[in-house]
Design brief:
Strand content: 35-45%
Helix content: 10-25%
Number of strands: 9
Low-confidence stretches: 88-105
Order of helices and strands: HHEEEEEEHEEE
CATH topology: Jelly Rolls
Amino acid sequence: MNRSPHPGRYTDNVDLAEEISENPTFAALGNQLLHDREMQAMRWQYVYQVSGTVVGQQTAVNTLTTEAGTSFMCRWITMSAFSYDSGNDSSFPVPNSAGSAAWAGRGLSVQITDSKSGRELTSGFVAMELIGTPGYGMNFQHPFPFRYLFYPNSKLRFDIRNRDAATRTHYYDIALTGFKILQE
């Protein structure tokens, strides 16, 4: 099947390649693909994740260290949290149609600090549902824009505070999505 833009005009692929390379539109696309391939060797998508538990009226500290040799350009942050529906940690919380199951996000607060630079990335403890995944409950997968460049070997400190008056354990996951950037 001849897929040439001009059927019957080209005798072989060399003629087609020459016309493509001389055409400004195709040359621009080729240059973009070459640039993307070269950049992928220096920059690629990556996800850092921290998980943990925190008991009622307590604060848990979780530290994430970025790799030496690569910076990390964070673009999005996603958080989720839950507690078990019953007090015996034996049943997974499944939200009911009213959305009133024991999802723990509205009981947790988070404080994020870049220990390497000393910058606090939140103004103290912030309710997890405000920055982690706005409006989550039954549908908690909307990432929140969180643009920040972490240097190689940065230490991110996540202080998770459980505001729940009950002493039940809450489980949380935090994901930072972005690009690793190779340092030369």
